[in-house]
């Protein structure tokens, strides 16, 4: 299978950074000609960058209209958050029997990677590792339909809403919660894991 085309190095993260910084607010349309001028980039590179950002759910693509920054209705946002809490805390009991020392080590390595990226990584790298951590944890579930529902519900919103990633303190809390989840898995403590997941999802960081 051919490798997907990628944009010029750094362009995707520069756009992601500006979204996070509020240069492009929720609902803002990302016009390719404006992005070409802003980033001194070729049209094809801008299109590839937008496609990559849409694939990672940092922006939305509307066929025949273009690309825009996610802007979810507040009530819908809260309802989806509540559904996620129900599904993901429910998954804690389902996945626990499949926890192994090797799985714990793998998740701890991702938690460490995420924490390290707070110091020297890009926003896009943080998003990707954050998603990999949660995908790895829920992949432990025995109920595959539950896993599918979790991924489907998470996909109904942006991977990491810019407004939730603005403050460094919130990202640092998220990093600590990753380690707390791993500790709960290692201790086979379902109730503790459920509590941490509820806090984590409740802050819309994951």
CATH superfamily of the largest domain: GntR ligand-binding domain-like
- Give the count of helical stretches: 9
Largest sheet: 2 strands, antiparallel
Task: Please provide the ordered H/E string of secondary-structure elements.
Answer: HHHEEHHHHHH
Second-tier CATH architecture of the largest domain: Up-down Bundle
Strand proportion, as a percent range, falls in: under 5%
State the end-to-end CA separation: 31 Å
CATH fold type of the largest domain: Four Helix Bundle (Hemerythrin (Met), subunit A)
Number of domains: 2
Kindly state the percentage of residues in helix: 55-70%
DSSP, total strands: 2
Q: Give the integer mean of the pLDDT values.
A: 87
**What's the CATH class of the largest domain, please?**
Mainly Alpha
Main sheet: strand order: 1-2
Derived from helix and strand composition plus strand pairing, the structural class reads: mainly alpha
GO molecular function: DNA binding; DNA-binding transcription factor activity
Domain HTH gntR-type: 5-72
Organism: Achromobacter insolitus
Protein name: HTH gntR-type domain-containing protein
């Amino acid at each position: 299978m051919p490798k997907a085309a990628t944009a010029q190095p750094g362009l995707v993260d520069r756009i992601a950074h500006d979204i996070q910084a509020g240069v492009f607010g929720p609902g803002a349309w990302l016009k390719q000609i404006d992005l070409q001028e802003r980033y001194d980039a070729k049209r094809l590179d801008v299109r590839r960058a937008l496609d990559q950002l849409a694939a990672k759910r940092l922006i939305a693509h509307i066929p025949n209209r273009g690309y825009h920054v996610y802007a979810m209705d507040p009530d819908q946002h809260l309802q989806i958050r509540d559904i996620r809490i129900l599904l993901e805390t429910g998954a804690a009991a389902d996945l626990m029997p499949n926890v192994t020392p090797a799985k714990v080590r793998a998740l701890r390595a991702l938690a460490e990677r995420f924490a390290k990226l707070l110091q020297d990584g890009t926003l896009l790298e943080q998003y990707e590792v954050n998603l990999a951590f949660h995908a790895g944890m829920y992949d432990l579930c025995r109920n595959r339909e539950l896993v599918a529902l979790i991924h489907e519900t998470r996909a109904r919103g942006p991977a990491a809403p810019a407004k939730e990633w603005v403050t460094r303190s919130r990202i640092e809390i998220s990093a600590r919660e990753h380690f707390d989840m791993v500790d709960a898995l290692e201790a086979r403590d379902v109730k503790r894991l459920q509590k941490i997941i509820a806090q984590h999802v409740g802050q819309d960081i994951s």
